[in-house]
Amino acid sequence: MAAAMAWLRRGAYGPVRRCGLAAGRSYSGGGAYPSVSLTCPLPGVPKAVFAAAESRERFETRVTVLENGLRVASQNKFGQFCTVGILVNSGSRHEAKYLSGISHFLEKLAFSSTAQFGSKDEILLTLEKHGGICDCQASRDTIMYAVSADAKGLDTVVNLLADVTLQPRLSDEELEMTRMAIRFELEDLNMRPDPEPLLTEMIHAAAFRDNTVGLNRFCPVENTDKINRDVLHSYLSSYYTPDRMVLAGVGIEHEHLVECARKYLLGVEPVWGSGRGRAVDRSVAQYTGGIIKVEKDMSDVSLGPTPIPELTHIMIGLESCSFLEDDFIPFAVLNMMMGGGGSFSAGGPGKGMFTRLYLNVLNRHHWMYNATSYHHSYEDTGLLCIHASADPKQVREMVEIITREFILMAGAVGEVELERAKTQLKSMLMMNLESRPVIFEDVGRQVLATNTRKLPHELCDLISQVKPTDIKRVVTKMLHKKPAVAALGDLTDLPTYEHIQAALASKDGRLPRLYRLFR
């Protein structure tokens, strides 16, 4: 020990001098080291300028409301490029009074010909001059038109977005091409080896039967020929109004974005006229619970040298809460704690190999092909569900394993697993918010729903405050609801809905026993 302390005091390479280096040291070429102090400024070298923390206001999301009700939101971010877009409070949940599938049509028709631009190619060429790309995504409650381009082309980008949103031509040729694209997508959806998008539709339809977020997100085949320009204009006149829109931008100056919004989105009459259409559907989601079953032969979904085995897919869900409620954060932590994934994984840190669905399900039951937790949250409701898949002969056992996991959620929560889930959630949040398009979507969606935005450090603080008692409280409340069940594949051995409901109401999550005279 004394020798080690002496080594530290002396330095690894002999005595240390305050000014200059130890005498006698030389380069390998023979020249002597210059006698220069490392604690004093070097002669002839400019003084170092260190980065300092700037005022927090510079990084906060700024929101301005224009005279017509349009909200303009921006977030500063260093870089040459920006992401700008228009988010509309409109989606499949608002289609109760209309033909189902309008939002799906609008998503496919986005960035087609407008009053200023004669074709989609013309729009893409205009964006190309600024190194830009465009995209449109429609969800159950939002339609989002977005462009990423050089920040110097902001004026052109906002002009284009305003034209695409408010002045689409919707020509007969474009409508026919959209019908073909939707029919192809629906066929592809039914042929995919991964049925997750289909199961997500089914679980929403079961949980919120015939209302709001339970309405079909994809256009039914029978409606493709019924949706025309008049139907679309009728819908657009009701929902594409300034007070239901947010112009969001990341990587640009707020004042410049507001100036462009006033120039291109204030006092502009849309192509469908200024008159209001039907009254806006403000229905609140009604959770019903229930089951939707689709018997389907899954034996040949993925043929080839390494075919996927025939599987039966089950998704069981319970109502959680909206993203506006305080319990949203505990539910997000719970979802991360459950985790899960496919039975094949390369593993490694951050892959969720210590989550409950890996430790308790996939590691113990080799025949389980998949077990994954999902949390869907909206402005008035939410849905926490577990998707599992296995051989059709193991369906009953698979369902019981999942119902047991739901019951165990309300049991003891280990301090280590809770801290790991919170750390993983914060890590995932911060990693995703490194991406400019993700920041744009976060800014737009939060401002559309709440007129403001919680910054990442605020969300991290809320995540850190979650305690085991919070998890137990939200799960206990959730387990009092009726389950929603979606089942796809060979359902011969699927337990009845009543048995699944009884298992989730029991203490151990076990299904009622079946007694048969003949096997």
UniProtKB/TrEMBL annotation:
Single GO term (MF):
metal ion binding
Q: What residues does the Peptidase M16 N-terminal domain cover?
A: 71-220
SUPFAM superfamilies, per this entry?
A: LuxS/MPP-like metallohydrolase
Instruction: Tell me which Gene Ontology terms the entry assigns under biological process.
Output: protein processing involved in protein targeting to mitochondrion
Q: Which residues form the Peptidase M16 C-terminal domain?
A: 226-425
Provide the function of this protein: Substrate recognition and binding subunit of the essential mitochondrial processing protease (MPP), which cleaves the mitochondrial sequence off newly imported precursors proteins.
Protein's name according to its UniProt entry: Mitochondrial-processing peptidase subunit alpha
Q: Which organism is it from?
A: Nicator chloris
This protein's gene is called Pmpca
